[in-house]
Amino acid sequence: MDYKFVYDEKEYILTEENCEGIFFDDENEVTGLSLDTILGALNDGEEVNFSKEYYAGKCECNTQEEINKSYRYLEYHFYIYTKNKEYIINTLSEEYKTTSFNRLFSIGKIDDSYIVNVTVCPNCGTYSIDIDQCTV
Length: 136
Known about the structure:
Elements: E1 3-7, E2 10-14, E3 19-24, H1 35-44, E4 51-55, E5 66-67, E6 70-83, E7 86-90, H2 101-106, E8 112-120, E9 127-134
Parallel strand pairs: 3-9
Antiparallel strand pairs: 1-2, 4-6, 5-6, 6-7, 6-8, 8-9
């Protein structure tokens, strides 16, 4: 599975080969969640728009220009919901369009939420996925 998008007239292709990894905060790993699931969610999203973000860390490609002690990346985020730390649904899916976190939580289908940050180096196209538990 891969995901393609164009930003500033340059095409980026996110694949398994150029992914640095999926990183969870504080050992809050979600079961049933894979790179294919995340790339599939991006493909399912109707309005996935990456934006510029700046971080202190430089990509290993070592080609980024330093801007005020930080480096430019492209980033997009969405949410996933879980039950007992097992992946259930994401906010880009067709199924989620007709429901909400509160509705799913109230019927006991989900019990937690996570933000999924997809961060891409605009120079080499390498990317990473950071997943952090959050409060909705």
